[in-house]
TrEMBL record:
Keywords: Transferase. One of its GO terms (biological process) is antibiotic biosynthetic process. This is Glycosyltransferase. One of its GO terms (molecular function) is hexosyltransferase activity. Gene3D superfamilies: Glycogen Phosphorylase B. It comes from Hassallia byssoidea VB512170. InterPro entries: Glycosyltransferase_28, UDP_glucos_trans.
Amino acid sequence: MAHIGLICPAMTGHLNTMLPLGRELQIRGHQVTLFGLLDNQRSTLAAGLNFQAIGESEFPAGAMTQLEAEQGKLVGSAALQYCISWLRKLAITFLEETPQALKQAGVDALLVDQVSPEGGTIAEYLNIPFATVCSGLILNRDKSVPPYGTLWSYSPNWWAPMRNRVAHIYYDFLERSIWEAIFKYRRKWNLPFYSSYDDYFSPLVQLSQQPAEFEFPRTTLPKWFHFTGPYHNSSGRKSVSFPYEKLTGQPLIYASLGTVMGHLVEIFKTIAEAVDGLDAQLVISLGGATSSQPLPELSGSPLVVEYAPQLELLQKTALTITHAGMNTTLECLSHGVPMVAIPICNDQPGVATRIAWTGSGEFVPVSQLSVPKLRTAIKRVLTENSYKKNATRLQQAIRQAGGINRAADIIEQMIFTKKPVFA
């Protein structure tokens, strides 16, 4: 059996992907250790996995909570640039400290989150196989696919590739500080320079928790790219109580902006006003967010909780209003629940456009958010059968994709053969 290391950001959406995958591999007899910030420790140990701290001085306990709180105050490109600044700092810390920690632990293979680009360089330096795991939207470049942070849908028109290329150049400019840091260490370790953006992904296995049906048409994915479907389960998640006795039996609308954006009071206020008057009960989860701005009394007196047991609540949900985080989106689709998305930052716009493209919901850009627009979208998705039908279609696609068992099979094949595992 192998000793498998995990590298991923100390962010709930990424941990909710990586920890269940690590747990499945541990059940199969492998030793699994997450190498991460102290803010990863509680969730990792709760999932029953080993934990090794990285960057204790640069990122003491609570550092990521503070960073998420600061990012949550921003939207659009400002939020993205803030995210990139601390991803650079995180990359430098991992490049400096993780190789020695992996050597001492005797790690045989790595699973690297796609938004931890330093992980591939670390694996190359140590000459150990690694798999890329896409917790969020697929970041692989394709001239026909719009960049992750845009609200552009897929278009077969001749001008679309040029539009996409210009946007990719812009994102390269924003992310240049991360790549400069990584290239510094590649020079130091006598590793070849990347010739293209996709070179930092694994040359052996790339895994996406999207089903193929929830992705725009692509032509350039490598043969070792696998659409496996999501890995979510309760591993590493807090046990959350919920006042089920307060549910009225009306169609349930569940609203969550994740764990980073949950303090955006004005958005929750708009959601409550948009739902007020509909034959439905609104449940709002704040995702544990705290804010100096108290939550006002909301229209329609929705049921508001700090946390919600999301996987359980989705079994009762008719419609989810979401920020279009990938994990929440796939959890909704796994339960056949259509959505109205309010994308705010990072890859959420790209996820929202796929929700609309697949017909499993609608989206309202945060810059255009208003009570009338949101109410119109909610009423449309609640009353037109096509949205539920398409969400159910994607639910079936997820069930057939193989999920965590298929992903673990692929990883094991990579470890044992040290060769690309073709889809």
